[in-house]
Amino acid sequence: MVEVASFDDASGALIEKARLPVLLLGPDGVILRRNAAARAVFGAASASFPDLLHDPEGARSQLLRAADSALPLEIALPPAQGEVAPRRLRAYANLAPQGAGLLLLIVPEDDRLTGADEGLLPMLHDMTTATTAEALSGVLCDHLSRLFPGSSGRCYLPQKAQDGTLHPMGGWGRLALAQTVIRQLDCWALRRGGVHEVGFTGQIKPPCRNIETGIPSYICLPLRAQSAVVGIVHLLFETAPASADRAAIAALAAAISVESGPVLGMSAVVQAMLGQPIRDNETGLFSQSFVDEMLPREILRMRRAGRPLTVATVCIDQMPALGEKIGAEARQSVVRAFSQLLLAFRQGSDVASHYDADRFVLVLPDMNAEQARKRLATFQDTVTALRLDENGHPMPEISASLGVAIFPDCGDDAADLLRLSALALDKARNTGSSGQIVISSAC
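Above: the chain's sequence. Below: its structure in token form.
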């Protein structure tokens, strides 16, 4: 048995220390990495995650649906030794940064598997359901006000991606009101990447310039998503806590900083705040930025395995004329319907993306030119069979043309494969016939 690697690099340090189990899955559910908490639950030997479940085939499709929808996947492991009832777990799936695989955050129905502090697990549950920055701030403020009774607090999150500032989004208690915009370089906690406390350990710490003088004790709690800082919470105490409570308060704050990391790292809200949305809002397909980050890693994975990979750039042949014939709103209906066909076409670790205004990109691992031509032809058939109507009136039929580039036949650089597939698409569209598939002449 091959032992699965841990999250021991810099970007995975938070995941490795977290008490909630986290798995990094490869294609078909193969476990590539697991943190210490996951090793305690699943063991250290290599395995396929779906094979640990009662319905392996069903689990694979459920994993893909969970990653697409951000809805939890309900699973049950066999009973632990000496127990009768199965271990109930809830899993949240999302794509790992830079397309490294699929991250699976395991949240048990109780805290027996994690030893999490009382009240911390419900907060992590609720954080996974937040769909906006305002909702995420509300979850944090609601739970932290109860975890730290007698405190006031302020929650700061980005408003613009990567501009180096955090803005007040919510708070609780008498000291909640705050109009200060925090620059990350002006914050000790954000610069150091860890909790910054004043008045808790007896050590002399530099005061936070973003907190007014006269507050005797406070904690600056950074919110981190793996290696990126995505916000900060100020825990403020008008009256210094009793000496017997200070260590417990500081320890709980530190635990929250660690435990929330994997949840935030897998949050679509956080990815959008960081300017790294993985989904196109219009179609639900993966975004251009996701493909640009994922494709180089997928090529590297195929190179190591000695396997091919297909990149196909796709367009709707009739799209230029549709806007004039049916109007912008109906045109968007066509794009959304076409996108649903692409989503249904995907299998396994395939990626379908809305790359720009009128172009879509398919990434098909483990597929050579002959296999790609046959499979893409079946997709064309589903497109030509599509029938749409607008207010009871039939809309024009559509077809799809595709330009294809193959790794390693056409090259081994992601940007080159995207460029060559786009050039092949241009050639397909210039043949004078619709519904063409052209493989790059560089192959």
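The first helix runs from residue 13 to 17.
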